């Protein structure tokens, strides 16, 4: 079953017939052909398999995870694929990442959502752990969903990442988080994450080493 679903997920990706001056990949999600421009010289500007896993979940579970008119933030949006799919599924989306990635992110989001979405998504800078209250004040920012794909890997900002999840998450916020397990770092982060949040594995794909989690603040999952 794992291999069958993984084949279906990866089958949503397609490549251009002709080599263009800009590197791009294509994806079929939410009834649309999505074209993503990538930057091969930047780690955050490539589509990783975890993003496809999360997009597939959003599309195939649209009844239990109805995004229409929901307020969604994606952290570490990278190329923007998850944010684009959430927008096409009816959410009001804020796609965030580091300042050096915002140009490519904005390009992809605009190209794939303009006049196609109920709510035009916005792109905003978010450096994990920095100026969180200034840029996303708790009093006025309320997100129904926080989405993240492949944000945990070998980088020195895991404390700041956890701080960012904590700041953005209200009592009724749902976190949807797809993660590829590579090193012991990932397991340690999951342990620390569970000190603040209840975690439920929604899907597991051993052949990809990717798990998809749903999380809420402690004590809220069954409330």
From TrEMBL:
Domain of life of the organism in this record?
Answer: Eukaryota
What would be one Pfam family of this protein?
Answer: Methyltransf_16
- GO MF annotation, one: methyltransferase activity
What does the entry give for GO biological process?
methylation
Cited CDD domains? AdoMet_MTases
Q: Which UniProt keywords apply?
A: Methyltransferase, S-adenosyl-L-methionine, Transferase
Q: Per the record's keyword annotation, is Transmembrane helix included, yes or no?
A: no
Q: What is this protein called?
A: MT21E methyltransferase
Q: Which gene encodes it?
A: Mettl21e
């Amino acid at each position: 079953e794992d291999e069958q679903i993984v084949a279906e997920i990866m089958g949503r990706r397609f490549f251009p017939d002709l080599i263009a001056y800009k590197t791009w990949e294509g994806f079929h999600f939410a009834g649309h052909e999505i074209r993503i421009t990538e930057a091969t010289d930047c780690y955050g500007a490539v589509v990783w398999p975890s993003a496809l896993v999360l997009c597939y979940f959003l599309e195939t579970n649209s009844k239990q995870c109805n995004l229409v008119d929901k307020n969604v933030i994606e952290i570490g949006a990278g190329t923007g694929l998850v944010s684009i799919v959430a927008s096409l599924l009816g959410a009001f989306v804020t796609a965030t990442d580091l300042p050096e990635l915002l140009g490519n992110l904005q390009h992809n989001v605009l190209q794939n959502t303009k006049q196609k979405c109920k709510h035009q998504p916005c792109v905003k800078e978010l450096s994990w752990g920095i100026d969180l209250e200034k840029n996303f004040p708790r009093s006025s920012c309320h997100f129904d969903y926080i989405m993240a794909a492949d944000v945990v890997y070998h980088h020195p900002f895991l404390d700041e990442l956890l701080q960012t999840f904590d700041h953005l998450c209200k009592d009724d916020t749902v976190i949807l988080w797809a993660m590829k397990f590579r090193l012991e770092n990932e397991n340690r982060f999951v342990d620390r994450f569970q000190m603040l949040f209840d975690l439920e594995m929604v899907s597991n794909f051993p052949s990809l080493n990717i798990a998809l989690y749903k999380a809420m603040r402690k004590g809220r999952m069954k409330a």
